[in-house]
Amino acid sequence: MITHSDEGPDFDPDDPLAVILRPASDYLGPPVGRYEAIRRRASRRRLLRTAAGAGVACAVAACIMLPLRLAAPDAPVSPAVPLAPPPASTPSAPPASPEPVRPRPTERTATPSPATSESPTRRPSPSRTSTPAETPTAPPTVSDEPPRVFDEPSAVREP
Amino acid sequence: MLKRSREKAASELFAALYPRLAGWCRRLVDDDETAHEIASEAFTRLWARWTAVAEPRGFLYVTAANLVRDHWRKLERERSAVRRATTEAAVRPPPEQADPSVRLLVQALPERLRVPILLHYYADMPVREVSVLTGRKEGTVKADLHAARELLRAHLRRSLDHTL
To answer: Low complexity: which segments have biased composition (chain A) (predicted)?
Structure first.
């Protein structure tokens, strides 16, 4: 069991320890300008620590965000208009000829003005206007085939 | 307004504590310049801290004690390097051993006992304050002080026997 006085030292005044462990009584005044120098140094250190803290925070944020960014799917894909297959009713013909282009403008001009209803007689419904797959298919079949039919009977040239 | 009052408080704290702290450091390092350096560094660390220190006096003394210990270690390394380099020093024992100073006696204490001795006797802090600063119970601090005194006494006796 430790039994010793708490606040007061447990040695006599003439104990050598009393001389050694006497409280500091000497004072050392600060040199001129020391206070300002210390304050400046402290504020500089504080600023440095702030900058370092901000840098570490940014680095941590980047370390967290980067894997998340890479793991996430790419930029959101804009919804593309699905290419509808050509309607089964119309005969499948290559819509490559320049002719199908022609009807489109006529169709557009025609639809707003119902007064000129004579020319677009074949397409009375305005709901079918914009689909590109449908508009080319109908006229080409009509326009392409005749030339071929006319070329074939080349019997005129033979003799 | 707040900044000015804070500046005033810092100035008052400096005026009240610096001379005593620097004097305490000088007693431990026996060198005015080093004492000023250590005291200045302790104040710099105090004012560079983010949060306000609740007990600036204790913080200053503990910081200064750590800096003094670092200074001693550095000196010891230099001394041992010089001792290794010169054969003369190896033949003749260093003069500090014949006349032990407070510095050497405190240096001989283990870390655990050194800080309470430094704070209680050299910084003149009551046991309660030392216990708060070191994070130990008051009874533990008292036991540490007692153990440190016994160790110092033994060191002193041994060195006196050497001199006689």
So the answer is: 108-136
**What would the two tokens of residue B114 be?**
């050194």
Instruction: Say yes or no: B48 contacts chain A, CB-CB below 8 A.
Output: yes
Residue A32 at interface with chain B, using a CB cutoff of 8 Å: no
Which residues contact residue B45 at a Cβ distance below 8 angstroms, ignoring those fewer than 6 apart? A42, B63
- pTM of the predicted model, to two decimals? 0.57
Query: What is the residue-level pLDDT of chain A in tens, covering all 159 positions?
Result: 444 444 555 556 566 677 677 665 678 899 999 999 999 999 999 999 899 999 999 999 999 998 888 887 666 667 777 778 777 765 555 555 555 555 555 445 444 444 444 444 445 444 444 444 444 444 444 444 444 444 444 444 444
Name the burial class of residue B134, with classes exposed (0-12), middle (13-18) and buried (19+) by CB atoms within 10 angstroms of its CB: middle
Contact B133, B55 (CB under 8 A): yes
Residue A86 has phi, psi (to 5 degrees) of -60, 145
CA distance B25 to A24: 9
Contact residues, chain A, for B160 at CB < 8 Å = 16
Q: Where are the domains of chain A?
A: 33-69
Q: Do A30 and B36 touch (CB under 8 A)?
A: yes
Lowest mean pLDDT among A66-75, B40-49, B51-60, B93-102: B93-102
Query: Which among A4, A29, A31 has the least Cβ separation from residue B146?
Result: A4
